[in-house]
Known about the structure:
This protein has 18 helices and 20 strands. The chain is α/β, with parallel strands linked by helices and 487 residues long.
Amino acid sequence: MSNIVWAASEVFPYAKTGGLADVSGALPQSLAERGHKVSVIMPYYPQVMKNFNKDIVIKKKLLGVPFGWGTEWAQILEHKINENLSIYFIEFHQFFDRPTLYDYDGVEFSDNAERFIFFSRAVMQAVLALELKPDILHTNDWHTALCNVYLKSHLYEEFDNFKNCKSILTIHNIGYQGVFNKSNILWTNLGWEYFNYHCLEFYDQINLMKAGVLTADVVNTVSPTYAAEILTAEYAFNLENPLQQRASEGKLRGIVNGIDIEEWNPEKDKELPFNYSISKIAGKAKCKKALQKEFGLPVSPKTPLFGIVSRLAIQKGIDVFLEAVEDMLIYDDIQFAIVGSGDKVLQGWLNALANKYPNKISFFSGYSNKKAHLVEAGCDAFIMPSRYEPCGLNQLYSMRYGTIPIVRATGGLEDTVINYEYSNIKDATGFKFWDLNPDALRGTMRWAASIFRDDRKSFNQIRKNGMSQDFSWEHTAKDYENLYDNV
Ligand code: ADP
Ligand code: GLC
């Protein structure tokens, strides 16, 4: 049994902007259930975590965090889940007492370098203060990647707490790397000797993800296909060389994410007006009706209803969807229910289409967990035209909710969805397209809609195939255990 410290900038249910939070909420829990001792460390965001204050206690009143020229004083809070699992929060209002996590109205906070350099250092200091002796320090994405550097650095070499500790960096998204002006190296207390090609330096700036990739004992990402894709210039956002180096050392892996089958369970989901399961599917049609009503679309069981729940970011290919969809809005009997927040231009474009074709497309602009669950349950199909997708969770939620995913074959979408090709009706779980262009997406959406309308038997079979898949963390937790054992 291992002692694991899991560091992340967001953890569900406390704070979430995307899949990183889902994974950080579920995988540590699954590992704890399997007998490991897991300490999750995240920032305390008072403005988004109010509902949890009743569960949280002060664990350490004063946590000294060396930071630049001086020392800052933070506080460690704890939510103890059980004997094997504690969630620790670093409370430091100057950096984390904000209405959102990383940006405001699409503009990144200008002190994000300081905020997450500070947090990474605080994680290391918290391990000392809490007297943890981790076997594994598991970091996630650029926000905590610097912990890998700290672990190997002169700053922590003398501490017994880290003597037997190995580090793992999970890349959830290589598109975000934490690239900042090199002057920020001051905050790290590492010194300019770390500003070189083999560590923090990146085109004369600092790159926290890159430094993590090069110093972690093992790097993994959240699907095997994405692990291969990020070795190419097309997908690596200029980190292909460091990633190729780690891959050639056998230190880059890909493990597909699981999903929280309690949180995402159509049979018990409290966010839904009606529940259902593979054997009692009637509730799904009722959810469709409820969704059509809630989204102001005509209630029509026969009309194919397709959904999207997404960050509105270039990664997600929403622009391609928007180019593809208008032709369908003009000519087809079809409906779309969309939940998303992010990019202002995409938001405006979605609003414009929703105003122009109010009976066919409805858009909720913002973040709503409840609406996300309703879209997953009420739709017939779910669209993910991602430019790249490290894993993707929504296609997994969709399958579990009997909502057939229509996906671009990239990253985790390629690994988790089986394309329908007539002959494989027993196994198919969705519809795939390969080229990222509006014609390919539109063609695939129309193909799915035609199966829904004209070959309901096959449509229902594909739905059932998806609903019978097991995407629970059980498998994935075992894969991570192997990774820990190997390291
Ligand atoms: P990513 O992490 O790249 O955004 P994932 O598919 O891994 O993509 O995870 C996205 C998660 O965030 C899912 O749980 C999804 O339901 C949720 N989500 C995204 N946008 C919204 C939104 N506007 N409202 C509610 N949930 C959202
Ligand atoms: C990232 C990726 C997404 C993945 C999630 C959790 O946000 O964009 O594909 O599912 O992390 O690993």
